[in-house]
Design a protein that fits this description.
319 residues; alpha/beta; 7-stranded parallel beta sheet; 3-stranded antiparallel beta sheet; 35% helix; binds ligand FO1
């Protein structure tokens, strides 16, 4: 079994490649839920939905989130209330775009949460409803919320990422609830033949999972069969604020910076060919380093990247 630690868009694209080269039933995607939010009274799990939508081919390819062929009539209809909404009211927020067909997912998840279903049960129902044979599980059934501390105070992740367009320096990132939240299933950390850390933001997509009790120690214990793919290429993030966040939080915005973050828990870092000149520098951090094409916007790259990722530890047992 191959376990993938996943955030949003980059991880979803990698997973789409992985299920082309292995039996999807052999894959378990453990997805960050620190981005989760409640808006309009709805329970929203963006990274879980992005992974399910992408692997099922339902994703909007340009946005990388939400559903293709989407309409926005419900969001548009909220506009009339903005003039009457009292100051301080959370009603009718329009900064977070929920498409009409995407709303169906949030209606379903919210109703099931209210009935007492766990996020794992709901996610299992969603992935089956979207025709996936890959197991998609939340990192925890317990609430973990990524709070981003800015110069003028803390904000929930989605307010940082979407409302503020992440155009604001971060001083600290906190995972509220992580100290008491239970990782979804520790046997995944011990029984997996290979663990892949997908090309997601190390600070806000992978770190929330690592913050759960026992995860880092379990990964460290088997770091030789843990492979990470750098989300930073040539000193920049392909999508999102990962490079700026690395700098703002005191890391190098390069593959060496990523290596230093992952070295304790991961034996191999896969970097893009554009960073080939940094292979030796990454290896000086105590990791094996493989340079290859990691730009998954090109067809076929996700599949070839996945094949390389799962073959790395293959000399340590078959899949
Ligand atoms: N990202 C945006 O940049 N703008 C949005 O309006 C937006 C809405 C949205 C709705 C549902 C959903 O599942 C994801 C959505 N995202 C949006 C992406 C979301 O912010 C993710 O958390 C990021 O992609 C980081 O993983």
């Amino acid at each position: 079994m191959i376990m993938v630690l996943a955030g949003g868009v980059g991880a979803a694209r990698f997973l789409s490649g992985l299920i082309q080269v292995v039996n999807p039933a052999d894959v378990v995607a453990v997805v960050n839920t620190g981005d989760d939010t409640e808006l309009h009274g709805l329970s929203i799990s963006p990274d879980i939905d992005t992974v399910i939508y992408t692997m099922s081919g339902s994703i909007d390819p340009e946005r990388g989130w939400g559903l293709r062929d989407e309409t926005w009539r419900a969001m548009g209809a909220l506009e009339r209330f903005e003039t009457v909404r009292p100051a301080g009211s959370a009603a009718a927020p329009r900064w977070f775009n929920l498409g009409d067909t995407d709303l169906a997912t949030h209606f379903y998840r919210t109703a099931r949460v209210r009935e007492g279903a766990t996020l794992q049960q709901i996610t299992e129902e969603l992935r089956i409803a979207f025709g996936l044979s890959v197991a998609v599980v939340p990192m925890s059934n317990d609430s973990v919320r990524t709070i981003v501390h800015l110069a003028d105070g803390p904000v929930p992740f989605q307010e940082y990422f979407v409302r503020l367009q992440h155009n604001v320096p971060v001083t600290r990132v906190e995972f509220v609830g992580a100290e008491s939240a239970a990782f979804i299933d520790h046997s995944l950390l011990t029984d997996a033949d290979t663990i892949v850390i997908a090309p997601s933001n190390p600070i806000v997509s992978i770190a929330p999972i690592r913050a759960l009790a026992g995860v880092d120690s379990a990964l460290t214990a088997r770091r030789d069969s843990v492979v990470a793919i750098s989300p930073i290429v040539a000193g920049a993030a392909l999508k999102g604020p990962a490079d700026r966040m690395l700098v703002e939080l005191g890391h190098e915005p390069t593959v060496v910076g990523v290596a230093r973050i992952y070295a304790p828990i991961c034996g191999t870092l896969i970097i893009d060919s554009q960073d080939e000149h940094l292979v030796a520098a990454v290896e000086r951090e105590g990791m094996r380093c493989i340079a290859t094409d990691t730009i998954m916007s090109k067809p076929g790259v996700a599949a070839s990247l996945a094949r390389i990722a799962i073959d790395v530890p293959s000399n340590k047992g078959d899949h």
